[in-house]
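In response to a reviewer's request, we include the raw inputs and outputs for one of the modeled complexes. The four entities were modeled together in a single run.
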Amino acid sequence: MNIKDLTIEQLEEAANMLKAIAHPMRIAILNYLDDGKKLTVTEIHELLKIEQSTTSHHLGILKDKGVLSSKREGKNTYYFLKHANLSNIVNCVSKCTMN
Amino acid sequence: MNIKDLTIEQLEEAANMLKAIAHPMRIAILNYLDDGKKLTVTEIHELLKIEQSTTSHHLGILKDKGVLSSKREGKNTYYFLKHANLSNIVNCVSKCTMN
DNA sequence: TTAACAAATGCAAATATATAAATATATTAT
DNA sequence: ATAATATATTTATATATTTGCATTTGTTAA
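The model returned the following structure tokens for the whole complex.
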């Protein structure tokens, strides 16, 4: 299938995924989750110094749009990249800002 | 410089770039502009079957955020990718939708 | 300079998103 | 069952984005 022939639904799915990533705090989250790292909501909330509810909200968006997965272990929920290659997107754009 | 140490300004710039891309019509536009192709506003407006002003608006956003460049030739303005590697982002996300 | 075409801009209404405070739910230990 | 901790959800307000119509600006040819 040619990439130019994406249906409107596929374009929307791709856009939703990118939209999920396209936020300063969510990019910062993804930068911490490279190399298969797994972090809890509290760890991320402390690393980024943002509200717990805001952190949970951002993680929910990333999970809902297929960027992250999560796994509960006791009281904690660990979040991690669903597809390792999604790091490339963040790396690529982040590098564009380092000139 | 470590990618984890991006400043808030750099995170915002990266987010703005991704936000520019993260729209169904704009992804469709970028899919047409691979391999260094150059297309006019009218060509894109006809290919995508969207209003001329809407097309121009989307192209303006992509240019403003550093995704596209443009070059006027007579009555036409040609738009093209500013950095060839930005195709990777679109390819990567688009492929995620083709499973 | 006027007509015709190409592209960009101003505007308004509809829709979507971000944030944080407050509250609710889930899990574990006592 | 209660307390303590971790996470998620609800809600409200503020802000941003999308779209197309109408208009304006830029360019070429007659």
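As requested, we also summarize the result in words. Residues 40-42, 52-53, 55-57, 59-60, 72, 74-77 of chain B lie near DNA strand C (CB under 10 Å from a C1'). The interface with chain A takes residues 1, 3-4, 6, 8, 10-19, 21-28, 31-32, 34, 66, 83, 85-86, 88-98 of chain B (CB under 8 Å).
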